[in-house]
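Bit of a strange request maybe. I'm writing a small parser for structure token strings and I need a real example to test against, not something I typed by hand. Could someone generate the tokens for this chain?
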Amino acid sequence: MSRRVDLHCICKRMAVMKRSQLVALVVASTSVVTLAIAQVAQPRAADTCRASAVQYRAAKQTSRGVSGVPWVASTNSAFRGYLFYWGGTRWSRTHPKRVRIFTTHAHVNVHPKVLWVALRRAASAVTIRGTRLDGQGSFVAHYPAAIGGGQFPSYVSIPAEGCWRVSLRSGSLRGAVTFSATNTP
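Reply from user aminoacidic:
Good idea to test on real output. This should exercise your parser:
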């Protein structure tokens, strides 16, 4: 009889162990699935940023030097930004609708060169002020006008991924462009 009791106790213990292992497996599986869903559901900056629209057709009064270069219009159409870096990225092939730019941490063989053209009377220099819209961060840069005035070659050096409003000021002329910045162009 004692042997029968021992077998009965052993069977009960095994059943309890199997249930606890099953519960642990279910909990672990649920955690993995929850993590996977959270990663898929997490929007990327490029998806949530209302970046400015990229224009691929030549604008009226476009000089031959920028013909064929994608561009963005600032708010209130005070400036037009010609995206000279665009050709060195995959974006030149994929033609996204919204403007993107790479950060200073990206490993690329091209600089983030933008030629800002003032569409009204401008001063002899432009101030570019970047403000991150989805987190902490900012930068400021100053560039003189090119010979002839009204054109400002610049490097838009964005320090971190995210959604960035780049404000431009030249004398009383002001405008802004919103960029979606990435480390992997």
